């Protein structure tokens, strides 16, 4: 039988983990091929994680080839082909942005170093934990032997939210929506771009033909969807975040669809005026575990302003973590 794909998940006892682990174990990432799960948590959460593993056992998933849990990243990341970094420190009451960045900085410097030391040569690292773009930058900066292209941050949830909103507006099926792009930071400044998206092969902005809807409804609805879900559900999006984490990893490892692209936050090479080295969301195509930024899209003045604003926020975050000595 084939060697299982070794997949690490951090924050495995958390909300997203509770959905993500079962999807992974059921074969949603590997298409049913065997998968081994390596689950990292902080020490006080290990008991809860044991309970989750009991439930995984009880599913008797045919594709689940093994589960290991622990609180030591060097043990859990040993030999992993894919690391999904979900666990992060949420902003607590009275916490300033600097406090949040340093709390997460401690987590992502340590995990970057551990991955650098023990992960498999072909490792890919996807960061879901917030602030995702900057956490990916911190992890990459602390893993000098792993190519920077192997790190990405999750904007696929935003991408999927944008597809869903556009489908609802136009009455199209989600499968008719292509070429969606999220630019910039996974934050309220992100820019979901309808000017390059298509509905049944036609330009989405032209199909919608309502700039007021784009600016006053579509963009804020996508960018603030996380807050709307907290408001309605009493806790943050978890199943949809898990689903997007799998979509992103699946496309990265096994390739994006022909004649379409996906959104991923990856290290900038200077494309579209995004300063080199920032981890920013772009339209990308993926093949055999590599991504490349879609080139040559025309950026009009409206889009330019939105992209620049989100990129400015990423530069601020980078400056802050530089001052804290995290990168
Ligand atoms: P939870 O608070 O339910 O779970 C996080 C888990 O991480 C906890 O069990 C905690 O013990 C663990 N953890 C903390 N530090 C750790 C460390 N050093 N090593 C291993 N585990 C550690 O949060 P959840 O709702 O699961 O969300 C996880 C992260 O995803 C948060 O940062 C959240 O903001 C972020 N999100 C990102 C999204 C995205 O699209 N990029 C959307 C959903 C979500 O908001």
From TrEMBL:
<feature type="domain" description="Lactate/malate dehydrogenase N-terminal">
    <location>
        <begin position="6"/>
        <end position="149"/>
    </location>
</feature>
<comment type="function">
    <text>Catalyzes the reversible oxidation of malate to oxaloacetate.</text>
</comment>
<dbReference type="InterPro" id="IPR001252">
    <property type="entry name" value="Malate_DH_AS"/>
</dbReference>
<protein>
    <recommendedName>
        <fullName>Malate dehydrogenase</fullName>
        <ecNumber>1.1.1.37</ecNumber>
    </recommendedName>
</protein>
<dbReference type="InterPro" id="IPR001236">
    <property type="entry name" value="Lactate/malate_DH_N"/>
</dbReference>
<feature type="binding site">
    <location>
        <position position="97"/>
    </location>
    <ligand>
        <name>substrate</name>
    </ligand>
</feature>
<dbReference type="InterPro" id="IPR010945">
    <property type="entry name" value="Malate_DH_type2"/>
</dbReference>
<dbReference type="InterPro" id="IPR036291">
    <property type="entry name" value="NAD(P)-bd_dom_sf"/>
</dbReference>
<feature type="binding site">
    <location>
        <position position="130"/>
    </location>
    <ligand>
        <name>substrate</name>
    </ligand>
</feature>
<dbReference type="InterPro" id="IPR022383">
    <property type="entry name" value="Lactate/malate_DH_C"/>
</dbReference>
<comment type="similarity">
    <text>Belongs to the LDH/MDH superfamily. MDH type 2 family.</text>
</comment>
<keyword id="KW-0816">Tricarboxylic acid cycle</keyword>
<feature type="binding site">
    <location>
        <position position="111"/>
    </location>
    <ligand>
        <name>NAD(+)</name>
    </ligand>
</feature>
<feature type="active site" description="Proton acceptor">
    <location>
        <position position="186"/>
    </location>
</feature>
<feature type="binding site">
    <location>
        <position position="104"/>
    </location>
    <ligand>
        <name>NAD(+)</name>
    </ligand>
</feature>
<feature type="binding site">
    <location>
        <begin position="11"/>
        <end position="17"/>
    </location>
    <ligand>
        <name>NAD(+)</name>
    </ligand>
</feature>
<feature type="domain" description="Lactate/malate dehydrogenase C-terminal">
    <location>
        <begin position="155"/>
        <end position="322"/>
    </location>
</feature>
<dbReference type="InterPro" id="IPR015955">
    <property type="entry name" value="Lactate_DH/Glyco_Ohase_4_C"/>
</dbReference>
<dbReference type="InterPro" id="IPR001557">
    <property type="entry name" value="L-lactate/malate_DH"/>
</dbReference>
<keyword id="KW-0520">NAD</keyword>
<feature type="binding site">
    <location>
        <begin position="128"/>
        <end position="130"/>
    </location>
    <ligand>
        <name>NAD(+)</name>
    </ligand>
</feature>
<dbReference type="Pfam" id="PF00056">
    <property type="entry name" value="Ldh_1_N"/>
</dbReference>
<keyword id="KW-0560">Oxidoreductase</keyword>
<feature type="binding site">
    <location>
        <position position="161"/>
    </location>
    <ligand>
        <name>substrate</name>
    </ligand>
</feature>
<dbReference type="Pfam" id="PF02866">
    <property type="entry name" value="Ldh_1_C"/>
</dbReference>
<feature type="binding site">
    <location>
        <position position="91"/>
    </location>
    <ligand>
        <name>substrate</name>
    </ligand>
</feature>
